[in-house]
Structures are given as C-alpha cells and as structure tokens.
Amino acid sequence: MIEDASTHRIDAKKLRELSAPLVNHQHLDVTFSGEPTALLAGYMKVTELEPGMRLRLADVRDLCGLTSSAELPAGIKIALVVEGMARLRYGQQETELGPTGRSAGLVVVMPSPGAFVRHGRPGGSERTVTLSLSPQWMVRRGLGQVLQDQHRGTPQLRHWSPSKELYSAARQLFTPTSAEPNCRIHHMQLSGFALSLAAEALAETNTESGISGGLTEHMGPEKPDCRIARLMSLIDSGLARAVTQEVLAQRLGMSLSNLQRRFRAQYGVALGHYLRRYYLNMTREALIRDQITVETAAEMAGYTSAPNFATAFRREFKITPSQCRASARQLFLPGGAEPESDI
C-alpha cells in the first residue's frame, strides 16, 4: 500500500522539521561511530483519519546511535511493532516492543502531556504502527473518563498481543507498491484498520484492571462528569474559541472556580493551559494541511498580534509558524492527499 522507500535518508535538520507537526519539544542525542550523512533510512507516514485520530506508519533503520526525546500530548497511544524492535520510554517507564520480545503491542494511557523517548541503536530497525487518540476523540466516544486515573499525570502502560488477523492486516500496510492508491479508498482502508486496532487493543487491555478500572463502564451514554464532556464538545466544535472561561462556565451552569477545579481533576492540567495548547495545535494543523497565512493562524488561535502568536508558537513547538508551514511541502503529497514523510 506504500511506495518502497528503503533508500530514503533523513538528516537531523530534516528529522526535526518533519517531527515538528507530530510532537512537542523534540531533542536529538546522536552518537556517531563514523561520519554518516544521515540519521535514519526509511520513511514515516502520518494520516489524520478524523479529528483526534491519527495513524502513523514508521519503517526505519537507525544509521547511528540516536535517542529522540519529545513531549507527547494527552490521550491514548496504541503501538504495534510488526517487525524489528522498538525501545521506548514513557515518563519513567521503559519497555521494548517486538514480535520476538515480551509483546508486540502496547496501550499507553496519558492523562496529561508527558515525556517520550525512543532509543535507536546502529543497524536497528522497526516497522511500527501507532494510533493516537486525543481526549476530544475519546470524549466523543464516551471514553473521556479513561484519562482520569488514580495515578493522575503518570502514563499507564499495558502490553497486549494482536490477533493473527490484525497482525496480518498491519503487515499489509507495509507492502511496497508502485501504483498510487486511490486516496479516498486508501483513507477508508486505513480508517477501518485503525478502528479494528483500537477495538482489539482496548478490549484486550480492559481485561486488566489497571486502566482506570476498565473501559467498558465508560462506553455508554452516561458520562461520570457530563458537564466536562459538554465543555470538550464546545471546544471541539469551535464554539468555545471566542469566549472567556467565565462565559464557558455560565453556559455550563456552574461557577468559574468549579469549572476549573473539575477540569483539572479530570485532565490533570489547568483549563487555561489546556486551551492555549489546544488552539496552538489547531493552528499548527491548519498551517500544515491548509497552508493558511501566519496572520490567519494568529487570529484562529485568539491572538490580536501575529508577532505575539509567533513567539508563543515557537515557544511551544521549537519552530516558527512560517517554518512549520514550509515543512508541509515535505509532508503532503500533490493533490491534497494525506500527510506523508519519507522517514
């Protein structure tokens, strides 16, 4: 389903540029044994299947000792290593994933943004499928309470093993082809796989009592905190963008202090901090996908000054809005296809 990219190379500068839309505050620690001209060989493809649901395919080989650290946003991460071995750390918890290791699959519940590290070794390789589900996506599916954990702020890791059918479907995603797929059909195929991946991984890990007391209790229409669920719907729909927190509290029929307290209790961060990051991430997506101007992005994020917006954007993502917009030319295929990179 993808083009053979075994000869593609990526250096540190390009890796930072291509990673900027995917993670925050990336740092690369490189150990060279010689004078390589690149860090990785291979490719990485990222597709936003629907708001808050992203599927990433990574087929990479390390050309040197590379440790990549970054901050991941809150939500659920589901990883499946099809071939090779991935050496990862979430927060303070390290793990290895691969068909020959403890398990090929991992579900990570992150109540709040947290540290992530990938350790690469010279000659090491991996083919990995990663599904990211945002808090907004989870709220829309009745899973928002999953992020409210007794170890609030600490990533919860659960290993799982895929079925033969799912594993076979994942392998097919890495089958090289010279023909360019129909974008709409390809998008539907990826969406179907992503939903199957989420359903199987969450169902299996639900048999363990560690993830917020189980997932099935949160699948129904009743939410443990329906007002916070309504708030997330307002944010996700864009209706919360042009109003203050005081107005949001009034719309929800509660005091501002009560809203802020209950939001922090559920998501582990202050509401203002969450909103700032949410709108910066939204404008980053628009800069990449829609190629909007920096001035338009500033307005979308609620800034009256484009320079002030650029300062906040650079502080958050370690890249300027203009650089982020320019990097999209490397991430998108012609004709409006899904985003793709070649690492």
Folded structure, characterized:
It contains eleven helices and twelve strands. The protein has 343 residues and is of the alpha+beta class. The chain folds into two domains: 9-217, Jelly Rolls (Sandwich), CATH 2.60.120.10; 221-329, Arc Repressor Mutant, subunit A (Orthogonal Bundle), CATH 1.10.10.60. The strands form two sheets. A seven-stranded antiparallel sheet has the order 1-3-4-11-6-9-12. A five-stranded antiparallel sheet has the order 2-5-10-7-8, covered by helices on one side. The protein is globular. The chain starts with 8 loop residues before the first strand and ends in a 12-residue tail after the last helix. 34% of the residues are buried. Residues 207-223 and 331-343 have low confidence and may be disordered.
